Amino acid sequence: MLQLFMNQIKKKEIKITDKRMTRFFLTRENAIKLLIKAATIGKGGEIFVMKSSAWRILDLAEVLIEESGERDVKVVEFGARPGERFHEVLISEHESQNTVVYDEDFLIVLPTINIPGLKQFYADCLPVKGNYSSKEFLMTKEEIKQMLVEGGFLK
């Protein structure tokens, strides 16, 4: 999405689905951290979910426009496609019944099937309450800019 928006800025028009849409953002470094954590801690069967911040698609577009220095860039909304969600859900209300907070960075969804010793391994972890949706963890424009700088997308 970042590269697409950056290319569209050069054409003076960013096309977004809907101004209300939100999406999670995961840097390459955090993706690697997630894989390493799952490989070293995982016992088998559980799903690791990294706690992530999210942004409104419109806020991302506006930050990229501001940082590009381009003038007169329009943001055009073309509407959601059938079945497209406004917000990403990493953990649903149903899944949260089997999800625990592992540490400050990770949530773990435990399988509903019985795997010997797995639930006991996570017995001291607190249960998650409710779903984990991108509409709940929105960054400010300044936080978006900072994350883009840290990720090497902006200078």
TrEMBL record:
<dbReference type="Pfam" id="PF02719">
    <property type="entry name" value="Polysacc_synt_2"/>
</dbReference>
<comment type="similarity">
    <text>Belongs to the polysaccharide synthase family.</text>
</comment>
<feature type="domain" description="Polysaccharide biosynthesis protein CapD-like">
    <location>
        <begin position="2"/>
        <end position="106"/>
    </location>
</feature>
<dbReference type="InterPro" id="IPR036291">
    <property type="entry name" value="NAD(P)-bd_dom_sf"/>
</dbReference>
<dbReference type="InterPro" id="IPR003869">
    <property type="entry name" value="Polysac_CapD-like"/>
</dbReference>
<protein>
    <recommendedName>
        <fullName>Polysaccharide biosynthesis protein CapD-like domain-containing protein</fullName>
    </recommendedName>
</protein>
<dbReference type="InterPro" id="IPR051203">
    <property type="entry name" value="Polysaccharide_Synthase-Rel"/>
</dbReference>
